[in-house]
Design goal:
Layout lengths: L21 E5 L3 H9 L6 E6 L3 E3 L4 H5 L9 E3 H4 L6 E5 L1 E6 L4 E5 L10 E5 L2 E4 L3 E3 L11 E2 L4 H20 L3 H7 L1 E5 L3 H17 L13 E6 L10 H14 L1 E5 L2 E6 L2 E7 L7 E7 L2 E4 L3 E3 L16 E2 L12 E3 L4 E2 L12 H19 L14 E6 L2 E6 L2 E4 H15 L3 H17 L21
Parallel strand pairs: 1-2, 1-9, 2-5, 9-21, 11-18, 12-13, 12-18, 13-14, 20-22
Antiparallel strand pairs: 3-4, 6-7, 7-8, 10-19, 15-16, 16-17, 23-24, 24-25
Helix pairs in contact: 1-8, 4-5
């Protein structure tokens, strides 16, 4: 991302403003989409900007990575979502800067298509920042080439390619040590994404690929889940964490907590692990692996650092109680881009229900401002939290009710299918789910062209 521009060159075309207030929403994720839809009947012009043409249902992205679903099953064109909303338009492009003083958004509409730059400026009366987050390697950006994160469809396809290729290479190598490394999969991060990946990967190896190979036994593949904190699923109650660990153990997932990754390369990961037998209480362990998957951390888009507004260490904007950006009239930040501590003193979790509720509330406050009314503080309504581990295995909290096992798994799938956008998506995912449940078959086991993830480091 480039820094904020102080002067807009005359050669750069601008969108001509009108008498109707203009609301620009940056980001077509859960928060951005909900904000746009909530403004359906408002007397405003809505412009939603995203670098992709589709809305991605990220909670099921791990299913694409593990060959359970195809990308089109969990994505839907943004234009299709908003096609019946007369006051909304969609712009596809990369946000390159925001001039808060002049109320302008700088956009490169050709960046996503990798063609010649086409800079555009979009003026706004109200702005919603919903640009989401990116994978962060805690100062070790060189690890990105060896440990793929899971934020985009491209990431999921790359993980799928690496996992399936590892089995193919293990089938043909005569080197026992190399085969063992190829059939060892390391997942860094014990949050919901890491747990879901670990469980799905063991099921892929244990059931789906079990009879597809002749020289190797895919069921013997080793899946290692590394968590730097005291335990996995830190946001869940202790009894549900214990249930999750039991279910992971039943699947054959090897879990290590308080395991801090100190190095990642093409041959695996080096980890600092607790060991009471050592003088300093720790030892260094090496996991030789051909596939390392990164699910350990995210940070806000680097663009937030250029805005001159309060941010936390992860680059998230510290919003006011009404979700507005401090010192900026009519500018709101939501979702993974915002840190909201006004309700409990602790930041709200970076999950889709939070982003969706924030999006609707930011839209409601914009409507209040257009009517000359004061904004209202945001309050998150916590309806629970769910994490799936594998076939008939999950944990969850719905209100005060704690769920585990098959019942939690059914609730997890029901909730996620309900929130999928588009009847076609719901029908296909439901069909694929039922089919794979009874047959252990996954039809998306395609090895595609290698994807080289972009350099995660912000430009100088």
């Amino acid at each position: 991302m480039s820094s904020v521009l102080s002067v807009v060159p005359s050669a750069v075309p601008s969108v001509v403003p009108s008498a109707v207030p203009s609301v620009v929403i940056l980001g077509g994720g859960f928060g951005g989409i909900e904000a746009a839809k909530a403004l359906r009947r408002a007397a405003v012009r809505v412009t939603l900007v995203d670098r992709h043409n589709h809305h991605l249902f990220q909670p099921l992205l791990y299913q694409v990575a593990m060959a359970g679903l195809s990308p089109a099953d969990i994505a839907w064109p943004i234009r299709s979502i908003l096609r019946d909303q007369a006051n909304a338009s969609v712009r596809m492009g990369e946000v390159t800067g925001i001039d808060l003083a002049r109320r302008l958004v700088m956009l490169d509409e050709a960046a996503a298509a990798s063609t010649a730059p086409q800079p555009v400026t979009i003026p706004y009366d109200y702005l919603v920042l919903a640009l989401g987050s990116r994978t962060v390697y805690f100062g070790h950006d060189d690890w990105a080439a060896h440990a793929v994160g899971l934020k985009t469809i491209e990431d999921a396809l790359e993980i799928r390619r690496r996992v399936l290729t590892a089995f193919e290479r293990a089938e043909t190598t005569a080197d026992g040590r190399e085969r063992q490394a190829l059939m060892t999969f390391v997942i860094v991060g014990g949050g919901p994404t890491g747990v879901e990946l670990a469980g799905a990967l063991r099921e892929l190896a244990r059931f789906v690929l079990a009879s597809d190979f002749r020289a190797i036994d895919p069921a013997s593949a080793r899946v290692v889940l590394l968590e730097g904190g005291r335990d996995i699923l830190s946001a869940f109650p202790p009894d549900l964490v214990a249930a999750a660990r039991r279910q992971l153990a039943a699947l054959g997932v090897e879990v290590h907590v308080e395991a801090l990754v100190t190095h990642v390369d093409s041959g695996g990961a080096t980890v600092r692990m607790p060991d009471a037998a050592e003088p300093n209480g720790f030892r260094e362990a090496r996991f030789e692996s051909g596939t390392v998957i990164w699910a350990a951390g995210v940070a806000a888009t680097p663009l937030t650092a250029t805005l001159g507004v309060p941010t936390d260490l992860a680059g998230r904007i510290s919003v006011e109680a009404d979700l507005s950006v401090p010192g900026q009239n009519g500018v709101f930040a939501i979702g993974d881009l915002a840190v909201f501590t006004h309700q409990t003193g602790q930041p709200l979790p970076g999950i889709s229900p939070v982003a969706m509720q924030m999006g609707r509330h930011a839209a409601a406050n914009i409507v209040r401002l257009t009517r000359g009314q004061p904004t209202q503080p945001f309050r998150y309504r916590d309806k629970g939290m769910l994490a799936t581990i594998g076939r008939s295995a999950a944990v969850g909290r719905v209100g005060k009710l704690k769920l585990r096992g098959w019942l939690a798994w059914m609730v997890w799938w029901s909730v996620h299918i309900f929130f999928l956008i588009g009847f076609r998506n719901r029908f296909i995912v439901l069909f694929e789910w039922v089919w794979s449940y009874f047959t252990y078959s996954r039809g998306a086991r395609l090895i595609t062209e290698q994807h080289r993830p972009p350099d995660p480091r912000p430009p100088p």
